[in-house]
């Protein structure tokens, strides 16, 4: 293990090396328009550059500093996948389109790693290039914090690789380095995982109960509103104690909510009372929906559940940066109080069953 200069995050140590490729003789550089850094903070430079070239279907890269990405990885007990992007390199286009944006790589990275990207000619990306000195691009690496506060380079991949080969290298790295960096299934971690799974099941039960209570309260409010608006005709309010009526009421309301979201086009805000929520799914799909700022966070979960997208089980919603997790504990908070107003972007993060 060789030590590198302590110029970033207190230093690096290095394990492993991968490939070296020379440029093709007929390489024609691609001219790429530089970003206006006055309008694009450094944390967003990589995503803006990447998405302008290749679109929005890609692994979920956190728009933050590398130090913050490492902290998130430590909290989630994951390693960091780092990609240094050189837009004009001849291998960049094929690697990004055929490897990095492939479904198998996207799903594998989103589940197992915290992903961070940097542009090789600016900001932190340039600092990483100066520290790691990659002989060629594309350049990927798996990194983790060390006990002494520095960083350890577990694996690096240099040059073009296929989607299956990249997943194989990353899988092998996780298996080989797991013992040293806390990724093995030790007894303590198994106990922790069991507790987490139990908490997830409990949270799901609470959310289902909250859904039922919310629907029942909503129906009662509707009945009361009908009574107030029809003074000549007094209608009998819903009897919440009647189990059969309650179940019928809940099923009707659930069906109405699902139909409402499935058939309703995204409305444009008419004033300051609405907020636009953009939701990104692990498969790269995006959905945008308008909500009232007084709606609860629960309404976003209800909207997602109504879409009927296959493969979605337990999940939570995560804002990009600053990172904030929305789960059961935030269900009753209004969107405005939760910081999701007047617009917000959320990522649906799958959770283990």
Automatic annotation (TrEMBL):
GO terms for molecular function: ubiquitin binding. GO terms for cellular component: endoplasmic reticulum. One of its GO terms (biological process) is ERAD pathway. It comes from the Eukaryota. The keyword Acyltransferase does not apply. It holds the Pfam family FAF1. Keywords: Ubl conjugation pathway. Residues 270-348 form the UBX domain. SUPFAM superfamilies: Thioredoxin-like, Ubiquitin-like. This is Plant UBX domain-containing protein 10-like.
